[in-house]
Amino acid sequence: MRRTFANVAGVTIGVLAMLGLMAGPAVAATGSPGAGDPYFPLQGNGGYDVSHYGLQLTYDTASRHLAGVATIGATATETLQGFDLDLRRGLTVDEVLVDGVAAQFDQPADLGQELVITPARPVVRGKPFTVVVRYAGTPGAVTDPDGSIEGWVATEDGAFVVGEPQGSPSWFPCNDTPTDKATYDFEVTVPAGVTAVANGDLVSTSTANGWRTFRWHNGEPMATYL
């Protein structure tokens, strides 16, 4: 800092000239609640990049109840004091962990599909971090402006999923934008006699106590709507 003085009309004026800026710590921000899509403004989120989704799902075809645990691996693209995931309000969140530590969370009614997360401490820019979301409920279909439906669609004997363009948050928390592709592991438990089909390769199956679990792995990054 250099301090100089000038005399103007008999008045002494002090002028501070900045010679250099010291780099301070990054200011924590809240990732944006949308990825900038003009048609679906709340689709996707800012502040991080997802690399992997691990989804553990149990679906009762009789009651149409879905229980899930989503383990999401991501990297912060800015220092985050908070961030959003996309998840529709038909599913209730029971717990959120960020790097193994309980985080505050909210599902604001006026936003519809935003799961707002506040970690116990900010996530530093460039740092990989893990989010675990435990949730449950009865997922419903999403009706588009043209009257078509998508998302988790229940049938008489099971369900099927239509993800494009905005159906994925009806059954799992995600960064629902095509610009953020990730790999996936699916572990789906259903009543014995029902088959669970997912993306990628079938890794294994097992049966216990009247339930059957299917494990699928998709190692090629893909958009959430797929």
Structural class: mainly beta
What percentage of amino acids are in beta strands? over 45%
Widest β-sheet, arrangement of strands: 8-7-11-5-4-15-17-16
Question: Which residue ranges are poorly predicted, with pLDDT under 50 across at least 5 consecutive positions?
Answer: 1-26
Number of helices: 0
H/E series, N to C?
EEEEEEEEEEEEEEEEE
Mean residue pLDDT: 86
Largest sheet: 8 strands, mixed
Total strand segments: 17
Measured distance between first and last alpha carbons? 56 Å
Give the proportion of residues in helices.
under 10%
- Oligomer description: single chain
Shape: globular
What is the C-alpha radius of gyration, as a whole number of Å?
23 Å
Write a structural description.
The chain is an all-beta fold and 226 residues long. 0% of the residues lie in helices and 53% in strands. The chain has strands at residues 2-8, 11-17, 29-30, 48-60, 65-76, 80-86, 91-98, 101-102, 104-106, 114-118, 128-137, 141-143, 149-154, 159-162, 182-191, 201-208, 211-222. It has an eight-stranded mixed β-sheet, with no helix packed on it. Strands 3-6-10-9 form a four-stranded mixed β-sheet, with no helix packed on it. Strand 1 (2-8) and strand 2 (11-17) form a beta hairpin.
Summarize the structure.
The chain is mainly beta. The protein has strands spanning 2-8, 11-17, 29-30, 48-60, 65-76, 80-86, 91-98, 101-102, 104-106, 114-118, 128-137, 141-143, 149-154, 159-162, 182-191, 201-208, 211-222. 0% of the residues lie in helices and 53% in strands.
